[in-house]
Amino acid sequence: MKLSCLFPYLFTLPLYLSAFYLSPLSAQENIFTAGFQYKPIFPSAFFSSDIKSISQNGIDFSISQKMGYSAGMVLRRGFTKQFSFETGINFTKRNFDLSITDTSFTGSSDFKIIGYEIPVQGMIFLRMADKIYANSSLGMSMDMYPSNIATRDTYFRHSSKRHSVFQFAALANMGIEYRTEKSGYFYLGASYHLPLSYFYESSILYEPTKVISRLKLSGSFLTLDFRYYFHEDPIKHKKKKPKDRQSVIGNR
């Protein structure tokens, strides 16, 4: 198994253990809140998401992932003193560079892939100081890719076909949250998004020699997370009043 497949678990394991064995302090019990987030996407060689390349008949083809972003809304529900649940919906834009190198020629182009994510994560909190909390979360995301991609120039034709419209990915996150009493919560963290399979397959035709190459794009990425949650008061559960025994007997 690749190290990148284990990374979501290694990414969050220390804080999970700390939350359960070192601190019983509260998370967000009975809080239901909403917010929004912005996440710059960073490619990384460690996650096998930066460059995919192949050589055929003396021609080098490569696709490299560049910076992109993900943005959307988040919903959080606190259930116990240690555990919260989070979901939402995100718009994601990934940017890629396409390069073809022949013995006497080098050409480059670019394309983008648009997707939508619905994440579901369980969150564990650990209080670090007054109003400052560390969190760790694990979960899954249902990703949707609305279309295939095609680009062309005088010397090449490129198409990227999605693996499927709906795909699933593992999620891992760690971060720090500053909670105010009336102005909401401010969050800074990092997330890792790991599709369970490749998410697009690219085919590239080099027109001068009619050589075709195919590359599978992993779709994994690392983000820096900026979030804001609106202030909400805890949900108050109404207690049921016991029925008067005499009135119950009288109605028989």
Question: How is this structure best described in words?
Answer:
The chain has one domain: Porin. With 252 residues, it is mainly beta. It is 10% helix and 60% strand. The chain has an 8-stranded antiparallel barrel. A 4-stranded antiparallel beta sheet has the order 7-8-11-12, with no helix packed on it.
Structural class: mainly beta
Under the CATH scheme, the architecture is: Beta Barrel
Number-wise, the strands total 13
| Major sheet description | 8 strands, antiparallel, barrel
In round numbers, the mean pLDDT is 84
Helix content class: under 10%
Q: How much strand?
A: over 45%
* Helix-strand topology string: HEEEEEEEEEEEEEH
Looking at the structure, what is the overall shape? elongated
CATH class: Mainly Beta
Radius of gyration: 24 Å
Number of domains: 1
The number of helical elements comes to 2
Major β-sheet strand ordering: 1-3-4-5-6-9-10-13
- Termini Cα gap: 69 Å
Which regions are unreliable across 5 or more consecutive residues at pLDDT < 50? Answer: 19-27
Topology:
Elements: H1 3-21, E1 32-42, E2 51-56, E3 59-78, E4 83-101, E5 106-129, E6 132-144, E7 149-152, E8 156-162, E9 166-179, E10 185-195, E11 200-206, E12 211-217, E13 221-229, H2 245-250
Antiparallel strand pairs: 1-3, 1-13, 2-3, 3-4, 4-5, 5-6, 6-9, 7-8, 8-11, 9-10, 10-13, 11-12
